[in-house]
Amino acid sequence: MDAERTPAVAAAEVKSEPEQLRRVALASAVGTTIEWYDYFIYSTAAALVFGSQFFSTLSPASATLAAFATLGVGFLARPVGGILWGHFGDRIGRKAMLVASLVLMGVATVGVGLLPTFDQIGVAAPILLVFLRLLQGLSAGGEWGGAALMAVEHAPEGHRGKYGSYSQVGVPAGLILAQLVFVVIDATMDDQQFASWGWRLPFLFSIVLVGVGLFIRLRIEESPVFRALKVEQVRARLPMIDVLRERPRELVIASVSFIANTAIGYVFLAYLLSYGTSVLRVSRTTMLVVVIIGSISWLVSIVVSAIWSDRVGRKPVYLVGSVLLVVWPVPFFLLVDTRSTALMIVAVIVLTIGLGASYGPQSALFAEMFEPRYRYSGASFSYAVGAVLGGGFAPLVAAALQTSTGTSLSVSAYMMGTAVISLIAVLFIRETWRVAR
Fold first, then answer.
1. Which of 13, 128, 146, 348 has the most CB atoms in a 10 Å sphere around its CB?
2. Transmembrane segments in this chain: where (predicted)?
3. 3-state SS class at 258
4. Residues 104-125, buried b or exposed e (16+ Cβ, 10 A)?
C-alpha cells in the first residue's frame, strides 16, 4: 500500500526524537479532547436545553427532534471540512491545519454560549445556532485527520497503533470533560438557573481550553513525513483528486467501516441522556454519571485495542469490535430500560468496549491505507463521510423511532442495521499492519 513512498519519506516515518514524541502525543490527546469537548457540550445541551431555548414554540417532543436536527446539521459540513483541511494539510502541512481547526472550533463554541434565545430575537436564534453548528462541523472535519497523522507519522516503527490512539482518546476524554462540567453545574444550581443562563457556562469555558490547546500545539514540530515530502517535492497538487483516482476502494471501505461506530457512538453520547431523562424519568445527574462511566470504559478500550493492533493487526481488532456492536444493541436497551443504575452501567461498559475496539486502531489503519502525499485528504474525507452517514442524524433517528414505535427495541434494530453494514466493510479491509511494519 505504501509502495509510492520515496526513500526519504520512508525513513522519516520511523524517525522522531523521544521528547518530540511526547509533545506530539500530548498535543494530539489534549487538542482533540478540547475539540471534542466543544463538540459534545453542544450534544449535551441539545439533549437537555436547546429545545426549550431555541424552539420554544414547538411541543416538547418536536422541540427535542428539532434540537437533534441541528446536531446533525454539523455533520453535513464535515466532508467539506475534510476536503478543505485535507487539501491544505497535504499542501501546506499538518501542524498549520491543527492550529486553524482548533481556533475555528473555539470561536463557534463561544459563539453558541453568547447566542440570544428564540424568546429574545425570534427566528434569528435557531438560524444562528445552525450557522455556528456548521462551523463546528467544518472544524471537526479536519481536526481528526491532522491530529491522527501527526501522531502516526511521528510514531516509531511498530507503534503506529499506540501513538495513533492518542488522537482517538480525545473523543471519550472530551465527552468526560463535557459531562463533568454539566454535572458540576447541575449540582450547584436549580433547574430555573440552568435553563436561564447556567447552560451557557460550558460553552464560554471553551475559550480557556482553546488557549491551553494552542499553547501545546504551537510547540510541536511538523510531521517528519510531511517535511520529507517537501524535500523530495512529491506533494500532490490536487490531493483529493488523486485519492479519488488512485484509492476509490479504500475511500469507500474506510468510510463505510466507520458508519456503525459513529452512529452507535452518538446514540450513546447524545441520545441516551435524553432518553434516560425524558422517557425513563431517571434523574439528570444519574444519567450523566452513567455516561461518564461509559466514557471511561471507552477511553481505556481505545488504548488497549490500539496497542493490541500493533501486535496482531488492525483487521482482527476491528472485527472483534464490529461483531460486538452487532450483537449488543438489544441487550443494551433491555438493561437500560430496567432503570437500574448498576445494570445501565453494565450496558454502557460492554457497548463502549465494542466502540473502542472499532475505533482505537483507526488512526493507524486510515493512515496506512493512503500514500503520504495525499494521506491527510484520504483519511479526513473517509472519516468525515463515515461520520455523516452514521452519526449525523443518529440521535434524531433514534428519537423518532422511539416516539413513533413506543419501544427502545426499534432503536436497537437501527443500531444493529448500521453495525451489520460496517461489519461487511471491515471484512473487505486489506490488512495494512504487516506492510507498515
1. 146
2. 36-55, 61-84, 96-115, 121-142, 163-185, 197-218, 251-273, 285-308, 317-336, 342-360, 381-401, 407-429
3. coil
4. bbbbbbbbbbebebbeeeeeeb
Amino acid at 74: G
Task: Label residue 227 exposed, middle or buried (CB < 10 Å: 0-12, 13-18, 19+).
Answer: middle
Ramachandran class of 220: left when φ > 0, alpha when ψ lies in -120 to 50, beta otherwise: beta
Torsion angle defined by CA atoms of residues 250, 251, 253 and 258, in that order, rounded to the nearest 10 degrees: 130
DSSP one-letter string for 313-358: -HHHHHHHHHHHHHHSHHHHHHHHTT--HHHHHHHHHHHHHHHHHT
Q: Where are the alpha helices (DSSP H) in 197-313?
A: 201-204, 206-217, 224-232, 239-246, 248-257, 259-266, 272-274, 284-312
Alpha-carbon gap, residue 209 to 345, rounded angstroms: 29
Task: State the DSSP string of 24-73.
Answer: HHHHHHHHHHHHHHHHHHHHHHHHHTHHHHH-TTS-HHHHHHHHHHHHHH
The answer, as to whether pTM is greater than 0.85, is: no
Query: What grid cell was written down for 428?
Result: 473487505
Nearest to 415 by CA among 307, 340, 336, 305: 336
Candidates 148, 156, 205; CA nearest to 32 is 148
AA identity, residue 388: V
Q: Residues 322-347: what's their mean pLDDT?
A: 96
Q: Are 15 and 227 in contact (CB under 8 A)?
A: no
The SS3 assignment for 134 reads: helix
Asked if residues 86 and 383 have their Cβ atoms less than 8 Å apart, the reply is no
Note whether 71 and 133 are within 8 A (CB). yes
Is residue 362 pLDDT above 90, yes or no? yes
pLDDT tens digit string along 89-141?
888 888 888 888 888 988 998 999 999 988 889 889 888 988 998 898 888 88
Rounded CA-CA distance 338/148 in Å is 39
| DSSP secondary structure, 71-95, as one string | HHHHHHTHHHHHHHHHHHHHHT-HH
Q: What is the pLDDT of residues 192-238, one digit of tens each?
A: 888 788 889 989 988 888 888 888 888 888 888 888 887 877 677 88
Please count the other Cβ atoms lying within 10 Å of the Cβ belonging to residue 127: 12
Q: Which of 304, 277, 306 is nearest to 290 (CA)?
A: 277
* Over residues 369-392, mean pLDDT: 88
User: How confident is residue 360, by pLDDT bands cut at 50, 70 and 90?
Assistant: very high
**C-beta neighbour count of 244 within 10 angstroms:** 15
